[in-house]
């Protein structure tokens, strides 16, 4: 049991009412999860304001309330603590409540529009190969050593995050590789954590529904670097013009990686095929199992982090050449000469990169058929851009549903259609049902053709009208390929 004043250590307080030595047995930010003896933190959200649930939390047994605005009605059995930023306070409280696990684990946070999961997963696989007990917090899954713990967010909320870190520490983890989403940075999910290093992969169009402007999206990413301590490292992509922006105000030691501009960790692509990637890194030629120029950047980021954490370059490269990468990223299968590639490209930049990679590895005569949709309740600006890119680099495109969530599926596809010009229009077919869309692509395909199924990668569900139903692009593609081409 901990006293309220102890878990408020390092939180800047504006005012307090009541006993600061009251014992608290849990930290909660959702009134629906309140139990007797907990502290409830009222956070303003995108849908509702946690302050509206203070009374409910008190009725549910909360002994302390942390809030930005003191409630009009206070109970003399409860302690009230006013802070200027409850979301930030929540992070610090969560860290204190779980005994600050981040101080005993080297945490590397990866941010950027694309490549976070890939980079964090590669790091986790690599460090495990090198004999370190390590943790992973990612979009696809959380991991403690080899144990998989399902993931609900790219970056968990502050309480889940610190609970997981504490479990990692108990299991002997020395390192944790995690994704830092821009939502998480703005919502202070990582406040109170001690970060050993941060990586910036790249920034391109995404999440403008949430951040409003591209400038604010950049600022969200930069906040991670601005808040790094002096003994941390900041490693950025030198070929992304925002890489230097990330380093402008950081106290951390600055490093870079890249293929084009001068960088601390630099490589040249020697070959790039559907079988793998060969890079010249600091005058060593190394072959990797992952594919595409964009993955050369991820490999360099991983190399940089590993060296900065004390690894030896030769050993790192040797082990790195064996690792496979994250699930549902450039996940290919070939059946009767037809190749399907399932990839999590759900931004214009990612889609362009993946399609350029496919263009680069094809011999010329085979067709590229793309199946793609865009998520509902997410940045609408991506929709026309992604449809246009799909058509620009493909011979045939089936515009379909991704996770429409609460939106009308066909309305999303129609938004995508507005991005088509008269030439691309001729290549496109609109088909709401994703399984039908994949089936159509597979029916169109002939020996040698490549089908890209983009947007959902590792996901094993599809969310339509708020209901999640099982759906796995990889499984659907595999079944339909066999069904439709078995006699050829
Ligand atoms: C837009 C967004 O980031 N939303 C996250 C946010 O919810 P919110 O701001 O909408 O919260 P809200 O519903 O308005 O509630 C405000 C506060 O009132 C509390 N409340 C609410 C109702 C109630 O009855 N009682 C109560 O106490 C809530 O617990 C909350 O503290 O805070 C919640 C708690 O941490 C998150 O679960 C939720 O994630 C939603 C589900 C989500 O879809 N988030 C996505 C966009 C997201 O975070 N994605 C990034 C990755 C993006 C990327 O890089 O690709 C991620 O890190 O996963
Ligand atoms: N370094 C990179 N640069 C550009 N595109 C990339 C890069 N790495 C991966 N991609 C593309 O982006 C897709 C998503 O990659 P990944 O899952 O690693 O990104 P993420 O940043 O974790 O995404 P999310 O924000 O959804 O968590 C991949 O399937 C691939 O198409
Ligand atoms: N982390 C991203 C993932 C998008 C994946 C795509 N399949 C979708 O559902 O929109 C988001 O939450 O915006
Ligand atoms: Mg991710």
Automatic annotation (TrEMBL):
The modification N6-carboxylysine is found at residue 221. It catalyses: UDP-N-acetyl-alpha-D-muramoyl-L-alanyl-D-glutamate + meso-2,6-diaminopimelate + ATP = UDP-N-acetyl-alpha-D-muramoyl-L-alanyl-gamma-D-glutamyl-meso-2,6-diaminopimelate + ADP + phosphate + H(+). Residues 328-457 form the Mur ligase C-terminal domain. It comes from the Bacteria. Its EC number is 6.3.2.13. A motif (Meso-diaminopimelate recognition motif) lies at residues 402-405. ATP binds at residues 112-118. Meso-2,6-diaminopimelate binds at residues 378, 402-405, 455, 459. Pfam families: Mur_ligase, Mur_ligase_C, Mur_ligase_M. Carboxylation is probably crucial for Mg(2+) binding and, consequently, for the gamma-phosphate positioning of ATP. It is found in: Cytoplasm. Residues 27-97 form the Mur ligase N-terminal catalytic domain. One of its GO terms (cellular component) is cytoplasm. One of its GO terms (biological process) is peptidoglycan biosynthetic process. Its cofactor is Mg(2+). UDP-N-acetyl-alpha-D-muramoyl-L-alanyl-D-glutamate binds at residues 31, 154-155, 181, 187, 189. Keywords: ATP-binding, Cell cycle, Cell division, Cell shape, Cell wall biogenesis/degradation, Cytoplasm, Ligase, Magnesium, Nucleotide-binding, Peptidoglycan synthesis. Residues 110-305 form the Mur ligase central domain. GO terms for molecular function: ATP binding; magnesium ion binding; UDP-N-acetylmuramoylalanyl-D-glutamate-2,6-diaminopimelate ligase activity. Pathway: Cell wall biogenesis; peptidoglycan biosynthesis. Catalyzes the addition of meso-diaminopimelic acid to the nucleotide precursor UDP-N-acetylmuramoyl-L-alanyl-D-glutamate (UMAG) in the biosynthesis of bacterial cell-wall peptidoglycan. HAMAP family: MurE. Belongs to the MurCDEF family. MurE subfamily. NCBIfam families: murE, PRK00139.1-2, PRK00139.1-4. This is UDP-N-acetylmuramoyl-L-alanyl-D-glutamate--2,6-diaminopimelate ligase. It comes from Anditalea andensis. The lineage of its organism: Bacteria, Pseudomonadati, Bacteroidota, Cytophagia, Cytophagales.
């Amino acid at each position: 049991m901990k006293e309220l004043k102890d878990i408020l250590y390092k939180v800047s307080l504006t005012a307090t009412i009541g006993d600061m030595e009251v014992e608290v047995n849990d930290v909660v930010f959702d009134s629906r999860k309140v139990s007797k003896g907990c502290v409830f933190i009222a956070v303003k959200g995108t849908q509702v304001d946690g302050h509206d649930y203070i009374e409910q939390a008190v009725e549910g047994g909360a002994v302390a309330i942390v809030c930005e605005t003191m409630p009009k009605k206070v109970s003399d059995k409860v302690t009230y603590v006013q802070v200027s930023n409850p979301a930030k306070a929540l992070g610090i409280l969560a860290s204190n409540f779980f005994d600050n696990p981040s101080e005993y684990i080297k945490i590397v946070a990866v941010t950027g529009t694309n490549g976070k999961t890939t980079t964090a997963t590669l790091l986790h696989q690599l460090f495990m190969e090198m004999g370190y007990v390590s943790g992973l917090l990612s979009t696809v899954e959380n991991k403690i050593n080899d144990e998989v713990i399902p993931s609900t967010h790219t970056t968990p909320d502050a309480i889940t995050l610190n609970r997981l870190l504490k479990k990692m520490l108990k299991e002997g983890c020395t390192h944790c590789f995690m994704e830092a989403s821009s939502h998480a940075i703005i919502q202070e999910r990582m406040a109170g954590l001690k970060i050993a290093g941060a990586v910036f992969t790249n920034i391109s169009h995404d999440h403008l529904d949430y951040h409003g402007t591209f400038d604010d999206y950049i600022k969200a990413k930069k906040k991670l670097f601005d808040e790094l301590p002096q003994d941390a490292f900041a490693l950025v992509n030198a070929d992304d013009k925002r890489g230097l922006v990330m380093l402008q105000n950081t106290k951390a030691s600055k490093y870079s990686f890249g293929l084009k501009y001068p960088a601390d960790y630099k490589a040249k692509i020697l070959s790039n095929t559907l079988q793998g990637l060969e890079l010249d890194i600091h005058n060593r030629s190394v072959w990797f199992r992952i594919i595409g120029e964009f993955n050369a950047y991820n490999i360099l980021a991983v190399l940089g982090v590993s060296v900065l954490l004390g690894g030896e370059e030769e050993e790192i490269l040797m082990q790195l050449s064996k690792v496979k990468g994250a699930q549902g990223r450039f996940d290919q299968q070939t059946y009767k000469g037809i190749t399907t590639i399932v990839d999590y490209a759900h931004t214009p930049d990612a889609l362009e990169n993946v399609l350029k990679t496919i263009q680069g590895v094809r011999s010329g005569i085979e067709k590229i058929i793309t199946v793609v949709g865009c998520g509902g309740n997410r940045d609408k600006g991506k929709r026309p851009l992604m449809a246009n890119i799909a058509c620009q680099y493909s011979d045939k495109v089936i515009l379909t549903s991704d996770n429409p969530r609460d939106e009308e599926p066909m309305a999303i596809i129609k938004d995508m259609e507005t991005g088509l010009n008269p030439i691309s229009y001729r290549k496109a077919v609109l088909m709401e049902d994703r399984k039908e869309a994949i089936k159509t692509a597979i029916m169109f395909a002939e020996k040698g053709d490549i089908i890209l199924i983009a947007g959902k990668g590792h996901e094993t569900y599809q969310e339509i009208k708020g209901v999640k139903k099982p759906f796995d692009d990889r499984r659907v593609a595999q079944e339909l390929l066999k069904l439709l081409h078995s006699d050829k």
